[in-house]
Amino acid sequence: MSYSTAQGRQDLLDAVADAIDDLARALTALGAAYEQLDEHHADELEERLFGPVQSAYGRARRAHSDFAARHGLAPRAFEMPTASAPSSGVKGFVEEAVAAAGNADATLATLQDSMLPIEVGDAELRAGLANVRELVADVSRHARGLIRTFGR
User: Fold this and answer.
1) Residues 36/89, Cβ–Cβ less than 8 Å
2) What burial letters (b/e) apply to 115-142, b meaning 16+ CB within 10 Å?
3) Which pairs count as long-range contacts for 8-13, CB under 8 Å and 24+ apart, including other chains?
4) Which domains does the chain have, with CATH numbers?
5) Residue-level pLDDT at 103
6) Mean pLDDT, 10 residues at a time, over the chain (152 residues)?
7) CA–CA dist 144, 27 (Å, integer)
8) Burial letters for 40-50: b for 16+ Cβ neighbours within 10 Å, e otherwise?
């Protein structure tokens, strides 16, 4: 394997890791929001936001570790960040989660546009990245809908 292929694969893995970190921030913020909601709104948040982001996070981690294993690269250990101050309230936590999920999506979109997943990646990784993007595609829209109903 040439240096450029090895470096390209590492760059690809690092970019996916950046998106995973963003998804972890989104999950942490959604978890904090969940804790402040009544049961009805918490269930809605879990179904429309937390579930899809959690699935995206898991799928991204699996794509990352599987790609690393297939190409003899060291997988990265991921940790969940701590939540921001509770004074930001439910709306603030949801907005933080939307921004983090959006950052993850933008990172993956940029990565896909770069052709790096085709040049040094593989079909399984490309499918995993596409699946992650599908899972977070509606987070912003669902969040807007939920924020409108909080407090009612």
Assistant:
1) yes
2) ebbeebbbeebbebbeebbebbeebbeb
3) 8/116, 8/119, 8/120, 9/67, 9/71, 9/73, 9/120, 9/121, 10/73, 11/116, 12/67, 12/111, 12/116, 12/117, 12/120, 12/121, 12/125, 13/64, 13/67, 13/68, 13/73, 13/76
4) 3-149 (1.20.1260.10)
5) 98
6) 78 97 97 93 96 98 96 92 80 94 98 92 94 96 89 53
7) 17
8) ebbebbeebbb
pTM of the model: 0.93
- Answer whether 57's CB lies under 8 Å from 20's CB: yes
What is 122-147 written as a DSSP string? -HHHHHHHHHHHHHHTTHHHHHHHHH
Compute the distance between CA of residue 60 and CA of residue 96 in angstroms, rounded to an integer: 20
Q: How many residues does the chain have?
A: 152
